[in-house]
Write a structure and sequence with these properties.
79 residues, mainly beta, OB fold (Dihydrolipoamide Acetyltransferase, E2P), 0% helix
């Protein structure tokens, strides 16, 4: 099963590429306080269907370029 992550698009300035910020909660090993950690992934997105601020699901795939190892699956509609 391929890794799937949910995040927010923070940049769409490149051709066929978007930058997605993925947040996750991590517990401190000693004090057990939970805090947010963010990571940015470059993902392959065909066409101009995705804009900054969209919530999307990305999936791991074969390396498309030096930095791109994910592709955008779908836009998540949140109400």
């Amino acid at each position: 099963m391929k890794k799937k992550l949910k995040g927010i698009i923070i940049s769409d300035k490149m051709k066929d590429t978007v930058v997605v910020k993925v947040d996750r909660l991590v517990a401190h090993p000693k004090y057990h306080k939970r805090f947010k950690v963010s990571k940015k992934y470059k993902a392959h997105a065909e066409g101009d269907n995705f804009k900054v601020g969209d919530v999307v699901m990305i999936e791991a795939c074969r390396p498309i370029s030096k930095d791109k190892k994910f592709r955008v699956l779908e836009k998540i509609i949140s109400n």
